[in-house]
Write the structure tokens for this entry.
Amino acid sequence: MKLGSNCVSNPCLKCPTDQSCCRELHGLKINEAEYTQLFAGKSEHLTVTRKGKLYELSSLGNGPCPNWDQQCQVYGNRPMDCDLYPYTMGNVFEGDGEVYATYHSRTECPLTAELLGPRENAEAMIRKFLTDTYGEHCKVTVRYDEGAARLYHLARRAAAKAKRVLAGEKA
């Protein structure tokens, strides 16, 4: 969970892929409070899609997170979806006093084995985030995403990697 200070030890600084997750921001899910605090003044660097009470952010041109400057400038106060990593929120569905969310751990993070905590902790973080976002009255369901969605994600990841290789980029 949030550690509370920008001078917190960041285990990602030893990443052998130079924090590609931050240097190619894609699909970050945040709530209005996180958007206002961390991204509102930086929207010219982002594609911002509002999905109900959540925002989904991606950097323009596959660029870095606007809070990235050789390292995370907001690490101690980063969004929940960043704090959750290498778990990632998947689909979030809203309706009639309910919100349903999936999450997964299908990332290319080379430090996954070191950073991945118990699923129960990830689910508790997501549940708190969604309850804070949608209110105490809302029924929140959180599920680990397995099955067909996993195969779809792996196919998309393989296609993106093949595209980078064909373009002459580092795989």
Notes: DSSP finds six helices and six strands in the chain. Residues 13-166 form one domain. The chain has a mean pLDDT of 85. The chain has one domain: 13-166.
